[in-house]
Amino acid sequence: MELVREISIEEAFKKGFKFIDVRTKSEFEEFHIPGAYNVPLFSEEERRKISEVYYSKGEKEARLLALKLVGPKLYNIVSEVKEIKEREGRVVVYCWRGGMRSLAVSAICTLVGINVPRLIGGYREFRRYTLRRMEEILKDKKLIVVYGPTGSGKTRILRTLKEEGFPVIDLEGLAGHRGSVFGGIGLKQPSQKMFDSLLWLELERLKDSPVIVVEGESKRIGKLFIPEPFWKAMERGEKVSIEIPLEERIKISMEDYQVNKFSPDVYLKALERIRKILGDEKYQRIKKLIEEKNYPEAVRELMINYYDKLYKKSTPESVESLKAENFSQALSLLRERLKSKKF
C-alpha cells in the first residue's frame, strides 16, 4: 500500500487540484502558488530551532525535535486540511522542494483516512513549470506594446480596456509599481518569484488570444525584473505610442500618482535619487517647489527636465504615434486600433 501518493505539477493543474502550502507564514507571504491555502506545519521560531539542531546535532535529532514540536498541533493541522478538502474537493500539499514537511502532512492525513497527495518537487518544481510555460505560450504570441511619455495615461487606458474585455496584462499592477523613480510611493511590491507567478497566471488566462496588449516598460519595474521570455516577446512586438499635450499629462500624473496624499518628505526622498541626473540647479528648483507644495509646477519641471529626456532615450525605434488631445481621445484611438486586430 502506498502511504503517500505523489502527483506532478502538470497533473495537479490538469485535474483541477487546489494547493495547500505547509511552509511558514513568512515563506508563504514572500511567494506561493497563486490561490494556495497556507496551513503551516511549523512557526517561524520552531523552524529556526529545528534548523539550529540540524546543524549542531544532525538530522536525527532535528527530526525528533520536529516531532516533539508538531505533535500537539497535528489535530488542528489535519482538521484544517480536511476542511479545505471538503470545501474544494481535490487538494495537494506542497513545501519548498517536496521534502519532509509536505511528506509529514500528507502521511498523517492519509493515515487517518484523508487522501491528500503531495506535490512532486514542491514550489521549486512549480516555478520551473511556470517559466517553461511562459516560453511555450509566448513562442508564437504577438504582443502590442503601448508606449508614451509619463502622464500620457497608458496604465489607465490599458486598465479601462482590460475591463472592457481586451486581452491586456497590467505589468505595473502585477509589480505593485508605476515604473518610475516616484512609482513606488504608496505601493508595495511582491517578491520576484511572486511577480513571475502572477505574470504566468495572466499568460495562462490569455493563452488562446492571438495578441496580448501590455504597457511599454524598461526591463526593471521598481526592484523587479520582467522575465526574459516575456521581455523578448515585448522587444519583437508591435509598438505604438500615445502622445498627448503636456498640460493634460500633468493633470493625469497628479491624479495617478495621488499627489497631495503624502507629505513633501516622501517626494523629496524620491527626488534625491535623481539629484545627480538633474544637476544641482534643477534639483534645488524642484525641491523648493515640492517644499512649497506647488506640485503642478514640480511635475512640469520633472517632465521637462527628467522624464521626457529619459523617454526619448529609452523608447525603441519603429514606434507608431497615436496623437490625441486628451485622455478620452487617446483611449478611443487605441480601442479602435485594437478592434482592427479582430481577436
UniProtKB/TrEMBL annotation:
Residues 13-135 form the Rhodanese domain. Signal peptide: none annotated. PROSITE patterns: RHODANESE_1, RHODANESE_3. GO terms for biological process: tRNA wobble uridine modification. It comes from the Bacteria. The keyword Thylakoid does not apply. SMART domains: RHOD. One of its GO terms (molecular function) is thiosulfate-cyanide sulfurtransferase activity. Keywords: Selenium. Transmembrane segments: none annotated. This is tRNA 2-selenouridine synthase. It comes from Balnearium lithotrophicum.
